Amino acid sequence: MKHHDVIIIGAGAAGLMCAATAGYRGRDVLVLDAAKQAGKKILISGGGRCNFTNQKVEPNNFICGNGHFVKSALARYRSSDFIDLVERHGIEYHERDHGQLFCNDSAKEIVTMLLTECEWAGAKVKLRTEIGKITQADSGKFEIATDKDVYSCDSLVVATGGLSMPKLGASPLGYHLAEQFGLKVLPTYAGLVPFTWQPEQKLKFEPLSGIAVPSTITAKDGTQFSEALLFTHRGLSGPAILQISNFWKPGETIKINLLPGIDARAAIELVLANHPKQNLRNTLGHWLPKRLVEALFDEALLNRAMNQLVHKELEQLAVDLESWEIMMNGTEGYRTAEVTLGGLDTDELSSKTMETKSVPGLFFIGEVMDVSGWLGGFNFQWAWSSGVAAGQAV
Ligand code: FDA
Q1: Among 60, 85, 237, 335, which has the minimal tally of Cβ within 10 Å of its Cβ?
Q2: Where in the numbering of this chain does the RsdA/BaiN/AoA(So)-like Rossmann fold-like domain appear (predicted)?
Q3: What DSSP string runs through 316-381?
């Protein structure tokens, strides 16, 4: 049996960050992963440019059963710390809307940086390794059987991520391990994920595929995001939808304001005063794409002049434009979701070290736990911050 101080399962964002941090502290670290390549999700993230963090990271950018849990790790390893690391490796980056930071060139640079850090820190990464049975001996040491060797370690770090994108190697191993050690796992859901049409909506809206409009979307709990809304063949997507999907539950409607920043009633009054004979189709055509207008409103209504519409119809028009309430069929699920909501209950963990309270030496980091970030680099920041927190403690 080969012994290491620390074994980390998962060579993704959190696992590699933890490995380098622990390695620099002189710990003998081995990272095990079933995949052929380390950091597969990093490689495809941000359209291949990896939105690696955000300029402004606040605890309220995260969804977690315990809102205070993320504070300590985020305060001790900030986005500015990761930006310093990126700059030390000479990686060029740029800022997009809402403080999102992306590589100028390729997400590969982030993976190379993390693997270089592991190498400099003396942490070893072993890929193509299937994990078998994991047990804890009376001595407190963990034993990990794999398809190659059997290992033992003093600290075991579970960094296996969530269930999103199974084709990239996502697996439920982390949840199973948590349950094996008697830890509570909260139900999991696909997050940052597009919505799908109901069958009758599909007939009506599928031809709009490709249309993007600014929007403000509100979930049942009042959470709101103002970003682009995209119509797809399968349903609704775009940043506004991905963000709101984190706050949506099956059976709930969402409200879409198609004219964010415009007072619809005042705008309608203005057209009525200045262009009373203009038909509704042309009026709406100034604000929204024609195909969307035709899908949303009745043909006969669109052909009427503004001054032929009665008060009740004008009022309904404002409601339809400002708070279009729609019940989607569901989400595209883990196949396309960027994150997994739920997971290991954070009440089981120390927020300072990510060590489980009931099993000394067992740590969980990254997405496997019940912490999910908004769209915008927050999920990677959680991987970096939680990885460093555990790396300093193992
Ligand atoms: P991660 O998933 O990175 O790593 C888990 C590792 O565990 C993997 O290497 C996997 O192979 C390994 N593993 C799993 N099961 C195993 C088993 N049974 N045996 C052995 N190894 C196993 N976030 C963000 O902040 N900015 C962005 O731009 C994006 N973009 C993005 C795009 C897409 C398409 C997706 C799917 C996700 C994103 N994300 C993102 C989210 C981000 O990728 C995610 O939150 C982090 O990668 C989570 O890091 P972890 O280290 O926890 O898991």
Answers
A1: 60
A2: 4-392
A3: HHHHHHH-EEE---EE-GGGT-SEEEEEE-GGGB-TTT-BBSSSTTEEE-GGGBSEEEPTTTHHHH
Per-residue model confidence as pLDDT tens digits over 272-318: 999 999 999 999 999 999 999 999 999 999 999 999 999 999 999 99
Q: What are the tokens at 272?
A: 């009525």
Distance CA 50, CA 166 (A): 19
Query: Are 160 and 368 contacting, i.e. CB atoms less than 8 angstroms apart?
Result: yes
Q: 372 and 344 in contact (C-beta within 8 Å)? A: no
Q: Does the interface ipTM go beyond 0.90?
A: yes
Distances (CA, A) of 68 to 174, 229, 347, 351: 23, 31, 11, 9
What is the structure's pLDDT at 210? Answer: 98
Asked if residue 163 lies in contact with residue 188, where contact means CB atoms within 8 angstroms, the answer is yes
What are the φ and ψ backbone dihedral angles of 307, each rounded to 5 degrees?
-80, 0
Q: Measure 43 CA to ligand 1 centroid, in angstroms.
A: 10
- Tell the residue number behind the tokens 């597969």, with chain if given: 40
Cβ pair 368, 179 in contact under 8 A: no
The closest residue, in CA terms, to atom 53 on ligand 1 is 161
Using only the alpha carbons of the chain, give its radius of gyration.
25
CA distance 185 to 199: 34
Q: How many CB atoms lie within 10 A of CB 304?
A: 14
pTM exceeds 0.95 for this model: yes
SS3 of residue 214 by DSSP: strand
Distance separating alpha carbons of residues 251 and 219, to the nearest angstrom: 12
Determine whether the shortest distance from the Cβ of 383 to ligand 1 is under 6 A. Answer: yes
What pLDDT, on a 0 to 100 scale, did the predictor assign at position 75?
98
